[in-house]
């Protein structure tokens, strides 16, 4: 009789444990889609090389001893940090493996300059542009687009409310609305443009254009997702992006002739902090 009671109690215990496991809510796992909305804080950690200048060949500039190509040591550009709304979608292929697509409203940045762009020798005293002039900074602004695709490995189990993750992926970055400030454009045109236009035989007003190159770069992402209910939760993550771009500023004559092309390589290398609210479908 005691043996039968022991067997019955054991079977009842296994049955209760099984029911308890079945009652554990499934937070998110294979087949789930998680939509996230919130903010990105983009903390730039930039450095840049000197401005490299290429001038339109001109007999007058040659006579003045101005080389057609030169670098201006001590010059550079730096990029401000930025905050922008974010939107992501994360789909779970398995309980651990998921793919996240990141987007949102593109971030706006101010671009600051330092140092003086000038050819070597005595001509640099006449033909130059001070990028560090406080009256012309920020020298430019731009809008950065960086949609990303990140493959995540999610630790722990679907029933766990707190799930750390780590991911690697790729980001395609391009820039729009790259514009010099009015003061910077006026200073460059008056200090460099007028002289270069005269030397090229196209005297008169000049204007400037600005652009930045696009690139595809890797991204590393770590974070933690916390579910408050079976549908709603929050997540906090940090991403590192070794982003590099080349900014180009051109000085043009009134007829469109390019008088000078100034290029500068910038290593932006931002760390992106994301605070997001999650909803699981």
UniProtKB/TrEMBL annotation:
InterPro entries: OMP/PagP_B-barrel, OMPW
Domain of life of the native organism: Bacteria
Name used for this protein in its record: OmpW family outer membrane protein
Keywords annotated in UniProt: Signal
Gene3D superfamilies, per the entry: 2.40.160.20
Residues annotated as signal peptide: 1-20
SUPFAM superfamilies, per the entry: OMPA-like
Tagged with keyword Transport: no
Tagged with keyword Signal: yes
